[in-house]
Design goal:
It is built from 9 helices and 14 strands. It has about 325 residues and is of the alpha/beta class. The protein folds into 2 domains: about 5-145 and about 290-315, Rossmann fold, CATH 3.40.50; about 150-290, Rossmann fold (3-Layer(aba) Sandwich), CATH 3.40.50. The chain is globular.
Length: about 325
Amino acid sequence: MNGIQLIAGSSHPKLAQKISQKIKIPLTPVTIKKFANGETYVRIERKVRGDDIFIIQTMAETVNDILMETLIMVDALKRSSVRRINLICPQLCYSRQDRRTRSHEPITAKLVANLFTKAGVDRIVTIDLHADQIQGFYDIPVDHLVGYPFMAKEIIREKFKDIVVVSPDIGAVKKANKLSELLGAAPIAIIDKVRHEHNKCEVAHLVGEVRGKTAVLIDDIIDTAGSISEAANTVKEFGAKDVVICATHALLNGEAVKRLQECSATKVILLDSVPIPKEKKIKKMTVISLAPLFAKIIHRIHTERSLGELFKWEEKSKLL
């Protein structure tokens, strides 16, 4: 392909390199460094005028630094007269702050949308937003991908039997329903939990039957793993014979790894939307790469082909 360049931010170089290898386009060299006072410097080390640019940048650790780095990179590209700036951002920061739950709070997801749009981003590709309505915060195209088909493929590959898909809270019911469809209309259970403060909640009720079944828990984000670990222990206490945890964004902050290791889950299926350091990987984890999907997405966006055709692979017939 001509007139296309891939640029990796500093957040997830491993994923950027995998995408580069899949699509057979080398990464454009870029200098990123910090001044003594913490300010970020970015310089694109190749001519980019008139080209279709794809920035590969996820937002997990040091979120504010990465956000600022991305905005500066976009400004550098805009001032270099590129044709279009596409941001491949698997984990979009501040997506959990999509509404006001108490007085005097911000809607930070909308602020981030304004920042990207005003800076000059022309299109965003992301996966499993915490809230679907965030797409409406943007005045530019947002391609919102989903992670549950990857999880369904892995579960089918592992040949788990007697599956019940469990939503760890009311907000994940839609994902649970979609995963259920891909697993042959598996039954669904829902955990009703009460959140008292950020990163802390307690299980209130379990709606549905899990006794004697393989309980597959699905969520978008594992942050400190408190909620998902408690959910895994709960379904085990209610008689589940096996517990599998599925999540897209493995932030794994604080004691998350310890909690996952000690909880009742025998398998944890994750996507590589954010980097997972070697020291945070445990035997029960399986990490699936998004690089093949993003390579196809980039190719189709650049060649002005439909993205809808690409998602036919979600159909159950394609998984079995």
